[in-house]
Queue: 3 jobs
Job 1
Amino acid sequence: MTKYDVLYSDTHEWIKIDGNKGIVGISSYAAMHLGDIVFFDLPSVGTKFNKGDVFAAVESVKSASDLYMPLSGTVTKVNEALVDHPELVNEDPFNNWIVEIEISNPNESNELMDVEEYEGQLD
């Protein structure tokens, strides 16, 4: 997966949509600005979130940040590898996703950005 395969929120989360499923992670920009990630507080499978809800928290050597759900949905998988190895997101933020969701309102994706729009609003 690359930065071109996903859609972005203005809070630096990405989502890869495949039918009614979505894989959610954070952008390389977010990972770089967080610095070395040392901890993730992850949601439970089955938890429902609305677009914009806090779904996880991340701590780095620099700061702690909330992560916001880019689309409404129910968590179907959690990347458990991040519990013991949160630094994986720093190494490759696009292949080390955080959660998979079943999307409940696909029309919300119209509000997300492609890579050109996202990178254009960064600085």
Job 2
Amino acid sequence: MPSKASNPTARATRQGNPLKEWTFLLALGVVCALIVASLFVGEYDVFADELGVGMFTITRIPRTLALVLSGAAMAMCGLVLQMLTQNRFVSPTTTGTTEWAGLGLLLVMIAWPEASIMTRMIGAIALSFVGTMVFFAFLRRVSLKSSLIVPIIGIMLGAVVSSISTFLALQTDKLQSLGIWFAGSFTSVYKGQYEVLWIVIAVLIAVFVCADRFTVAGLGEDMATSVGLNYQRLLFLGTGLVALATGVVTVVVGNLPFLGLIVPNMVSMIRGDDLRSNLPWVCVVGIGIVAACDLLARTIISPFEIPVSVILGLVGAVVFVYLIVRQRSHG
């Protein structure tokens, strides 16, 4: 007669692994400490006088909130793109999505120099969506003998778009503005300018709600169709969410290179490939990496500050090379 005693392993699975929960809380605590440090690191004493308190609310708090939202957004974008393409080398940096967003921003500024931040955001989002769909169209028509071909295609498309942007910027005397937009820095973030980043919260919620569908879509069109899902609709939805988040971050902060490549790979190496359970981890780790890089960028040559994209680019390039070597060593 089988025992009616419940299985401890199954019960633990249903209730959640306490060790994993404590690990997440520990990671969250470390990230919160970095965020608090970001609030108080700077060349002026925020509590010295009324001016310092005013600067704290006008620049420090908006800068830190922008750091949190943009870090979560770009890490999430990489996770969604990697799930839809089933390729660990895909991110907004290696698909050309960021370059397309920059082109959209530039076109709006050329056509309407006094455009509001909302108008610029719409232009960046629209071109991000178009560029990502162009990338997916290339993938459909190219025979992929290696997973390394996918980021090469994206980087190639991004280089072409970047060249077009540079040419247009030279012709319209906006090359300096283009360089500032792509610098990827939080120095120009202030109250009244960063608020559009709150859209990222809605995008994160939408990704979490659709996480299981995106996971199935990542298995291929045939698999998604066999379980009753509309593959093309999911592809458009995922691309739209990525374009929305990338466009908003590009307009407010600029380019944050390789963040969407580093974070999802770090998390999936430890936790596997489940999008729903990985999403909180990806957001927390993304925020932590951006916060750490930003603190380093603000202190390494203090009182001057280097763009956070410089630090992220160095870290991301090292991780990218490591992933390529790891892929080759595992066949």
Job 3
Amino acid sequence: MRVFFSVGDASGDLYAAAVVHHLQRLRPRWRYEGIGGVRLLRAGTHLWGITPAFSAFGAWSALRTGVTLWALLQRTRRRLLADPPTLFVPVDFGAFNRRLLTPLAARGVRVFYFVPPSFWGELPERLRRYVHPNIVFAPIYAWQREKLLQAGAQVLEFGHPLVDILAPMRALPPHEARQRCKLPDDRRVVSLFPGSRLMTVRENLPILLQVSHQLWRCDPTLQFALGLPPEWRSDWVAPLLARWGNRIPLSVHIGQSHELLRASDLALLVAGTVTLEAACLQTPSIAVFWTGFLNRLQVHWLRWRGVNVMELGPFALPNRILGDTVMPEFIGWAASVERLAATAWQLLTDEAHREQMRQRFADLWQRLGEPGACFRVAKFLVQWAEQ
């Protein structure tokens, strides 16, 4: 049996690796292949290519990384169609993976889409192209499930993988997390998470560093820490740090995102799953989205098409799950350095507000469901493949 995983960002890499970990125990003689990141590689998957740092958030960012990804897509498609696997397991990475679903399903491959994209601006009838007897979707959020069911797709639910992944870190005292990150115990820590995608980091890290500088001017005792995914290299951000971050006390942490979140008094986050990870680890945070100039223009283009993106919010995953803007979020042109710095300073100086946020985050943790999601996924894949 061959199982192929197609992963394009850090969170997908984390989830896929957890599934492979259980599959290796259930079926150690199966062959696991794919495209993905360092975690998937460490789980025992033979990778055709490394993807997370080069995926994109927003159509215009995708265009800027499109040549590399398009070439990878064409190579992957040709190889998979020439020698189809038993199971194809895409994880998020919608712009890439959606182009592989129906061709592989038509060849008899069983397609299990774990964590499908949110389909921003997509009407259910446009998703009917992905309805096929060989395609099963496994959403982890209610809005994904509802849209797929409206389209008539096969939908199964297994729970949220972060429940298992983050449980050990939730039990770690913050001071021990600081020791692991080699951060001082006597200073407040503000962590910066500019994203896992190369273009996203380039667009957002300068903004977060400028906000940090304003906070440092208010309190020179603050310690700042930059969190990057495990497949990153510090030299990728060195020019940005030299230009924007050389005047503040800043440490760089690669592959320690959960420890760093647990160690932080406040986190400044860009898009994606890290907002949910921060909430699960009860870290007071601020979320930032769509800050690139062309991505901001995309918001206006979608509005011209009849989709008002601003009405689709809240955008941060904790806020969408809770149905309330618990984590402050700034979208597009609203994400100015001045506004972000003012909100961050208010949170840093208001312990009651931070505690209230932590209490709401505790409620969110309960809503994610029971542990064992990735094991249940692995067990289903074994049963489905061996039918």
